[in-house]
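Q: Give me a protein?
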Amino acid sequence: MNLNVAFSFFSAFLLVDTARAQTVLHDERRLRKTVAPTPSPTPAGVKLDQLQAFYEQTFFGGDPITCETYSMSEYDGNYETSFIVDGWASWGHHALQWKGYHHISENNGQGFYSPTQADTFNPPMSTIAYGFVDCVDKDDLNMIELASSQVYFDGTGSFVDPNGIWICLKEGDPFVGAVTAAMGMHYWGSPTYVNAHNCPNGICVVAAVVEKVTLCAQGTLPAHELCGWDDNVWDASVGSTDSCSAALILDSIEIGFFKGASNTDRFQPHNVITGAEWAMIYGDWSTKPIDQDLVMDPPVKKTEAELTNFHKHAAATAQNLQVVVEGRDGKLELVHASKAKPVE
């Protein structure tokens, strides 16, 4: 019998006592019943196909513009599996599936991931009304990835803990959040999971995975060069983390939606929205402005100092960030990102 098929068959029936014990982990928090607020109207305005012409003809006056798209690794993997699509906003299953693809890619196509076994540990999910992508969930994900959980295999059939460790940063500003996600992709290829709300394109969401972020700037250099991302050595505090004078533009973000009140197809990947639309869906359904938890996966554990510097540099990159909005006269305008935030 083919080794991977054998493992798939074996994993479908494998139940570990310790796994059963973990299924109650944080259940009370995740399964709270709440009533979703009435969604705000879907933000109208800028169309994606208008942006390039606007940059070249209106703002930049024909000067060159460089747009760089930062993408999660394993972007083309299949994330519309039954565990992700049929579960209630099963962003935890998505994260573990991504790690499975990443693990196999790192090992030249060798290895295996068992979503059936992972499911016995009750991966992080969202409630119907509120997202609750929470920093505590990183601990759940890291526990599920332990070799003792018997979820990931190497090419010889041994249980392994795949490379990477889930971390969490808190960020209340949607635009700093977007840059943080872009930096996570640039350095580590990691997706970023965050709470979401509102109903873009008529789809009411409770959580999102950031798949791609596109940043643009006048001139021939991409955002990461203009703002010195590669000049930093986080553990040695080398490079400036305090400022970036470049006026970048948050062109677009591609995200996977985890839906709220939906009985079927509860996950929809590859939705492209503008920077202004991103500000309208960032964060949970709470009426109070609070920091949002960003969960991502660097390849090795980071110290608190490294994460602080990483986060500071994301904020510095975003300090002059701009987005395109539709003005009162119907014409497109480039404004500082702070003016595109929803009124609290």
